[in-house]
Structure formats: C-alpha cells, structure tokens
Amino acid sequence: xxxxxxxxxxxxxxxxxxxxxxxxxxxxxxxxxxxxxxxxxxxxxxxxxxxxxxxxxxxxxxxxxxxxxxxxxxxxx
Length: 77
Prior knowledge:
Blueprint: E1 2-6, H1 17-24, E2 27-33, E3 36-38, E4 51-56, H2 61-70
Antiparallel strand pairs: 1-4, 2-3, 2-4
C-alpha cells in the first residue's frame, strides 16, 4: 500500500468522496482544501482546488491514475 496525491480531472468536482472511492478502488485518506488538511466523510463533495490524497495498492497506481484522469462514470453523481 502507498499514500499518494492523485490529480483529478475537473469532471470529478461536485462528486462525493464515496463515488470517487467506488469508481477508482482507492481509499481517500485526506484532502487538502484551501491549504488545510481535512478528513473527509463519504458525503464530502469534491471542490475546485482540492488535492486528493489516497491509499492504494502499489501495483494499481497506473490504473488508479487513469480512472482519476478519465473522470466519473455516467450516473455516478
């Protein structure tokens, strides 16, 4: 397992952390929002400028980065 900051496409803005976790297979450890670290709940909604820090399996880094770059699947809002 590794902790990593993953860059998200703007299409994730407005989606809940639970949707992000379900669709990418990661666990969000914390967010950096406006320079402050916050512990999100499953109901926390991603906002513009959020930095997402996730725990993921080392062998799934490429797959996770691709999912974050592609954005949410339709109906995942």
